[in-house]
Specification:
It is a single chain. The chain is mostly helical and 339 residues long. It has 17 helices and two strands. Strand 1 (106-107) and strand 2 form a beta hairpin.
Amino acid sequence: MTASAQPSNADQIGSIVERLQGMLEGDLAATEKLLSERAASPVPVIPNLSGYIVSAGGKRLRPMITLAAAHACGGANHGTHALATAVEFIHTATLLHDDVVDDSDLRRGKQAAKNVWGNNASILVGDFLFARAFTLMVETGKISILKILSDASSVIAEGEVRQLAAAGRKDLPTEEYLAIIEAKTAALFEAAARAGALSAGDAGVQHAEALAAYGKNLGLAFQIVDDALDYGGTTSVIGKAVGDDFREGKSTLPTIIARRRGSDEDIAFWDRALDLEQQTDADLAHAIHLIRSTGAAEATIAEAKAYADLAKSALRTLPESQWTKALSDLADFCVSRAH
């Protein structure tokens, strides 16, 4: 096929996600119903605020991983739907908390909830959603699954604190960056895939480790691409303002690579610009220039692709099916967002 005849990346991305959504149509409908029912409360601000961010959508990527993992191991059931809902509640709770910690103004293309209801309400409703998630886990009647998702919740919190401690650090090692994103992002992907597998019964137990490895590596690829998009994506792609990480003084893989490859003058720029007390409005444009001119953008995407390939490799121990194919395609989707 010639380059001119190839479908666009946008078409490829859309078709991958839409196909999986179609395959999971009934399961996603059941999950959406649970999301609405379990966010209900006689305290109006709780359903209003939680509904605001949940209804903003997102692709429901983590619940889809839970559901597809179960199908890859024999089939989804009501317990799987409860877990998919719990995973989305945990994710939503972390978003509410993150936006307060990071003082972000935009989430999924809308004003962040903390800008509408305030910081206190956002934090407390996030706590409510965490509690609802644990109720749903308990209802599955499987202590092993409760442990998986409760452990993941602890790891996510540790990752956020670790990232906070690293903010403004001038020479953040790549290993520390990877440890942060493994905790704050990949842990929930891993738990979603493992829990989904275990919800399917005996076949799921057999394949849970492989699907956990898939989820972990997929999560790493996803977050690395998100960090690359912060310096070259559009608001409609990533659902937040471009340059948020930079303005928050976060060292991410694009900046780490650009700094490592840069001249002494470039290193001095990064050390100043990632210090929030010295950063200026003009610095973001120069940061993007350095990330592109040093090849840091391409190197970052190459790293994401390597993790996506590891995710796909983990699926090879499972019986081939439309579900393993869809999960493999999902790994390609995560990387394709950068183009």
